[in-house]
Structures are given as C-alpha cells and as structure tokens.
Design goal:
- The longest helix has 17 residues, at 179-195.
- This protein is 41% helix and 22% strand.
- The chain starts with a strand and ends with a helix.
- The protein has helices at 15-25, 55-63, 103-113, 127-139, 146-159, 162-167, 179-195; strands at residues 4-9, 30-31, 35-36, 51-52, 67-75, 78-85, 97-100, 118-124, 173-175.
- The chain has 196 residues and is of the alpha/beta class.
- Helix 1 (15-25) packs across helix 7.
Length: 196
C-alpha cells in the first residue's frame, strides 16, 4: 500500500518551496491537485497549483459525494474554500503521494483513507521570519491585501496550536531555518518510510 506524505505548517513557512523540491528529489511521488474557490494569483495556472472552481461547481461536487475534505476561510474578500476531491487522482494500491494541507484536512484525509495511509510532515519557522516572508510575498501581488496577511497569521496561531498538534499526534517538527538542511531531512525520512 502507498502513503500520502502530507505537508502542513503555518502560512509562509516554505511549504510550497519544500513541496516542489521534494518532487524534484523523489520523482516517484505523485501529486494531487486540490480545488479552490479563491481567485487565481499572478503566475498560477488552472490545473497546476489548483483547480480553480466556482461556488456552484464546489456545491455540485459536494452533492455528488466527491468532496473528501473542505476548509472554508472567511477572508477580507469573502469566503474561500480549499478542498480535496475523490476524482480518481489517488490510487494508494500503486503509488505514494505528496500533498499540502492543514491539520483539519489531514484529520479528514486520515478518516477517509485510514491513518496508516498518511505520514505527517509538519514545517515550522520562527514567527517573525514567517511574517516578514508573508509580507514580502503579498507585496509582489498586483493588489496586495496586507489585511489578509494579518488575518491568516492570527488564524494560524489557533489552527496550529500545540493542543491541535498533539490531538493529531504530530510528533516530529521540521524546522525550516535553513532550507537545504530541512529538505534533506524530510527527503531522507520519506525515503525510509517508503522502503517499509
């Protein structure tokens, strides 16, 4: 049976960078494109970063029983949903996968596929550094929304509290102070788990 290596962490901890580099180093890992109702950002391509869906499309998928997990955030620009769909992308009989999500989505994926099918990869960065990264990333957007950066920053403090990490039995934390060392440690741990 395959495994889903599930990357999690607060915003601006480097999850996307780590995700891409792990795929480069372990090309056998398959990917799953999530769905979202949020607007597409500069540089994103529909079907690559996400499947960008309308609220009506999301509702149809939910009505059809295809949504495995869904998180909706009340943003400064209205509600944005991120969701995983049972659309044939995941085949644990034959493949291992790399995904990014939250603790809540991780729990729902465990409930759907079985806890033994998921391996948590929790990324952490010093809060000051994380905030500076988030501001820098937002500054590059066409219409920066610093209020949204602040909302996400504060929401992360609650979502990824120690209590919630303990509830999800997240024991190992990968510190992304030095990117190369962090990626190498994660890649090594994934390779060990794939052999078992």
């Amino acid at each position: 049976m395959g495994k889903i290596f599930y990357i999690m962490g607060k915003s601006a901890t480097g999850k996307d960078t780590i995700y891409q580099e792990l795929l480069n180093r372990i090309p056998e890992l398959k990917t799953v494109v999530l769905y979202t109702t949020r607007p597409i950002r500069i540089g994103e391509v529909n079907g690559r970063e996400y499947h960008f869906a309308t609220l009506e499309q999301k509702n149809r998928l939910e009505d059809a029983g295809k949504v495995i997990e869904c998180r909706t955030y009340q943003t400064m620009m209205g509600p944005w949903s991120y969701f995983t769909v049972d659309d044939g992308q995941i085949d644990l009989r034959n493949c291992d996968y790399l995904m990014i999500g939250t603790l809540v989505s991780y729990e729902k994926m465990c409930a759907y596929f079985g806890k033994e099918s998921l391996a948590p990869v929790y990324i952490s960065v010093d809060d000051r550094e994380r905030l500076l990264r988030a501001i820098e990333r937002e500054t590059a957007q066409k219409d920066p929304r610093y209020d949204e950066v602040c909302r996400r920053y504060l929401a992360d403090e609650e979502d990824f509290s120690r209590k919630n990490l303990d509830r999800c039995e997240i024991k190992k934390i990968y510190n992304n102070t030095e990117l190369e060392a962090c990626i190498s440690e994660i890649a090594g741990d994934i390779q060990v788990q794939r052999k078992h």
